[in-house]
Amino acid sequence: MRTLLDLLLPAECGGCSVSGTMWCERCRRALADVPIAVTPRVDPGVPVWALGHYSGPRRNAVIAAKERGRRDLAAPLGAALSGAVGVLRGWGELSPAESSRLCLVPAPTRARAARVRGGDPVLRAVRAAAACLEADCRVSPVLSMRRGVRDSVGLSAGQRQDNIGGRIVVAPSVGDRISEIADRTLEVVLIDDVVTTGATSAESVRALRSAGVQVAAVIVVAAA
């Protein structure tokens, strides 16, 4: 049956397009490399870490997940993000698992973009990452974007700030969850796919802080 399916719908690696597998070992190793520190032009006020630069398998996987409906890539992206959490814990950049529970907050996606993509690829990857981490790691999709945010492709740093400024908010329906993640025994990490200028990360951190939630770090798949 698998051979027949491969003939009808050939498997292709989401990172390098090699045939015969949805995600190859070479791309897995590329995303499993140690995270790099990023200094975006718009400072979110917390450390920002990326799995690497926006190139090669990272870029291809992000595009495939967002624009080509590759839901299956949530698993390898989530595994790579969970690996980065482990490395940052080992470096002392995040608290060890035994001393602090972890809460992953996905950066928000425009509602229209999520509808077109058949769901939110960032949220899918975050849930996959949580599944790879300890049992009490929680996912809290508490952020949303107000209307009026347009696609940021092609915008300058200033235009991105104007586009997103004040338009990321804590969703009105998540009051109970916000009070839970504001608990200081939780270590909150914001997750996104790509950081370009840092405007989205900065606005997300601002919105969480305004609700009493302290963010420990931002982790992204790639830095552009």
Topology:
Elements: H1 2-8, H2 25-31, E1 36-38, E2 48-50, H3 56-67, H4 74-91, E3 101-106, H5 111-116, H6 121-132, E4 138-139, E5 143-145, H7 157-164, E6 168-170, H8 175-181, E7 186-195, H9 199-210, E8 215-223
Parallel strand pairs: 2-8, 3-4, 3-7, 7-8
Antiparallel strand pairs: 1-2, 5-6
Can you describe what's shown?
The structure is a single chain. The protein contains 9 helices and 8 strands. The protein is of the alpha/beta class and 224 residues long. The protein has a single domain (32-223), classed as Rossmann fold, CATH 3.40.50. The strands form 2 sheets. It has a 6-stranded mixed beta sheet with strand order 1-2-8-7-3-4, with helices on both faces. Strand 7, helix 9 and strand 8 (215-223) form a beta-alpha-beta unit. The longest helix has 18 residues, at 74-91. It is globular and about 45 Å long. The mean pLDDT is 87.
Describe, in short, the structure shown.
The protein is built from 9 helices and 8 strands. With 224 residues, it is α/β, with parallel strands linked by helices. It starts with a helix and ends with a strand.
The total tally of domains equals: 1
Uncertain segments are: none
- Output the CATH class name: Alpha Beta
What's the CATH topology label? Rossmann fold
The biggest sheet, with number of strands, parallel, antiparallel or mixed sense and barrel status, is: 6 strands, mixed
Question: Given the helix and strand composition, which structural class is it?
Answer: alpha/beta
Strand content: 15-25%
Give me the side-by-side strand order of the main sheet.
1-2-8-7-3-4
Give the overall silhouette: globular
